[in-house]
User: What shape does this take?
Amino acid sequence: MNAIITRAGFFSSVQDLGRVGFRQFGVSTSGALDSFALRVANLLVGNEDGAPGLEITFGGLQLRFQDERIVAWCGGEFDVHIGVAPLPAGHAALVRPGDELKFGLPQIGCRCWLAILGGMNVAPILGSRSTDLRANFGGLDGRALRHGDILPLGPRPGSSRDVGATERISSWTAPHDWVSPAKRNPILRVIRGVDWTRFNASTLQRLTSELFTVSPDSDRMGVRLIGPELSRGDNVDLISEAVVPGTVQVPPSGQPILLLGDCQTIGGYPKIAQVITFDLGIAAQLRAGDHVRFSEVSMVDAHRLVVERERELDRFRIGLSLHAS
Amino acid sequence: MEIVPLGDSALIVRVREQFDDAPEETLNEVLQTFQQLRSAAIPGVIELAPAYTSVAVFFDPIAVSKAFASGTSDDVVDWMAGRIRAAVGRRTRDRRSLVGRSLPRIVEIPVCYDPEFAPDLDEVARHAQISTDQVVELHSAADYRVACIGFVPGFPFIAGLPKKIATPRRSNPRKEIPPGVVGIGGAQTGIYPLRSPGGWNLIGRTPLKLFDPTKDPPVLLRAGDRVRFRAITREEFAAFAEATAAKESLNR
Assistant: This one.
């Protein structure tokens, strides 16, 4: 069974937890920019947490269902409706054949992730169903969704009892900061970058004390920031080496770029800082005009945050499965 | 060897400081380290990627902290660095063994240097103060090695360009370069696998496909490969492209 895209909206694509193992060949990881939000949405509908979902940028997407499905979404502050009934973030709900699911424009943030029971039935390419929007493969025909697209959905697991399970699942909600991570003027926590010491003391001071504004010239590859000029203490030509989502690199202009999931695999610009994995979901919500600050944390804290959240997610997963059985 | 954290989920293992001083040795050492880390199968490591002087080690900090018996995550990086040093140290002791010493593959790339595909051939010739024919001769006679793959999927950064024809990148990058186009960027040569923007000087085009996501591995060239360019005519280019298309429709 399918879902029909009755309105494409601004920009939506099929994404899962990303492509692993092909960076040595220059292939980006792609994947949901807030993988945690997608995992929570998937758990709420009863999917494996790595099932493909839709990443919806700036809303406007509408889709009509051909069969009964459980849906849930997490991310920025969007008005979402099934027909005329509002669907808040982090709530599982049932859609029936003919129902239309509509995403409005975001009040805060810019992206959200929709999980549908059964996921999307698109072929895995290089081990992932994520759309690689730069190299145009994966997802639905390697591109963003268009008006009129037929989005094939996967089989619904345990369909004989899933309506009953729905009623019970729908009484569950996930913690607020899991499902609505977007903030108006966020602080992103960073650890020191590989080239931290190449920058002079006043630059490092500016990085963690001043405001940066998000440029409109930002996308899934990276967020361009406008702020105080970050100048280096040396001008050694660097040899290209690995970059990752979260890398804050500084091109010769002195205006930093925060790399996201579609970033290239290697780069030659100096890396001043790294946004911690835990805060990548907040970074994924940055939109033009937002103000952002950076604050330094320790590596130990960066790890502790993800490990503790994972433990909570495990508890949540067990709770859901007991509740739904 | 230096190990530096690249965020909270990756480390860069720097094998050497410079590349250009000794490209051959550096590349061999980097690839050996890459192989050695691969066979070490360190718990929590999800992938590895070599680049010029370094190997990036990507790991899952949650899996790594689960690998600790104590369950503390206080020293994920130290633990990881220790495992990496142990894996690479083993290589130093076994320097004479055959590990990672397999001969590099040799890949021949047919290139058509016809002006139709080479809008910057004149510029390269002017910069080198030689004729365009001499540029083609120099480019297609040299022995090259792929230093690494990156920028876009399958893009080979190829070392070994004759110094004479090294040409600075264009000040105005092109918005769109067709797939298969061969370029010179500074002291390196490379091939654009996909339609993409780029600032290199374009001197020819190959009919070969450098990236195909339906294949595993999805790339024609890998780090360490030896590469030779063979000059072909426009007619050969057309015949090659046709044969490739026919083969693809057969496979479909």
Chain B is about 30% helix and 25% strand. Chain B touches chain A through 50 residues (CB under 8 Å). Residues 96 and 190 of chain B are 33 Å apart (CA to CA).
